[in-house]
Amino acid sequence: MIQALAWSRAQSVCRGIQPNASGFAREGDRVAIRDELDAINAGFGEAFETQDAERLAAFYADDARLLFHGQPIIRGRAAIDAEFRDAVSGGPATLRFESDEVIADGSLVVDIGRIVSPTGVSKYVCIYQRQADGRLRIVIDAASSDGPRPAEG
């Protein structure tokens, strides 16, 4: 369960990033957005390690959806909160979230990356939307496992 939920993300502090006249983020904004996602990813990993389900759920918009392999779509923050409470009940998890590619367009940011854990590597796509309060919140979180890490030897 923790592995499936690991593909989720985080919350951030508003940096006031605005698109230019064409609707696309400027190059400097892309750097700021990547920095923002790095902070979100670190916070998400910390929340799993400290078993903080409330913090995990706070990274999501009220109408967010989780799309995890082998599970029906989980809709809304209340259902997401319940899912994370169940996930962290199994104990702390050591997970590192890494953004590989970031696409920003207006109020939407797409984060394509990987989750590294002691047991293997997984991949995710998260779509964030900048909310009225300026924070990026996850609106869609989709992830899948690459399978267990090969045995060394």
Written overview of the protein:
The protein has 153 residues and is α+β, with helices and mostly antiparallel strands. It has a single domain (2-146), classed as Nuclear Transport Factor 2, Chain: A (Roll). Helices cover 29% and strands 36% of the residues. It contains four helices and six strands; from the N terminus they run αααββαββββ. A six-stranded mixed sheet has the order 2-1-6-5-4-3.
Give the overall form.
Answer: globular
What is the strand tally?
A: 6
CATH T-level topology: Nuclear Transport Factor 2, Chain: A
Summarize model confidence as the mean pLDDT: 81
Number of helices: 4
**Strands of the largest sheet, in order across it?**
2-1-6-5-4-3
CATH class identity = Alpha Beta
Q: Indicate the structural class.
A: alpha+beta
- Any idea how many domains? 1
The second-level CATH architecture is Roll
Measured distance between first and last alpha carbons: 28 Å
Largest sheet: 6 strands, mixed
Order of helices and strands: HHHEEHEEEE
Using only C-alpha atoms, the radius of gyration works out to 15 Å
Helix percent reads 25-40%
Provide the β-strand percentage band: 35-45%
Low-confidence stretches: 1-27
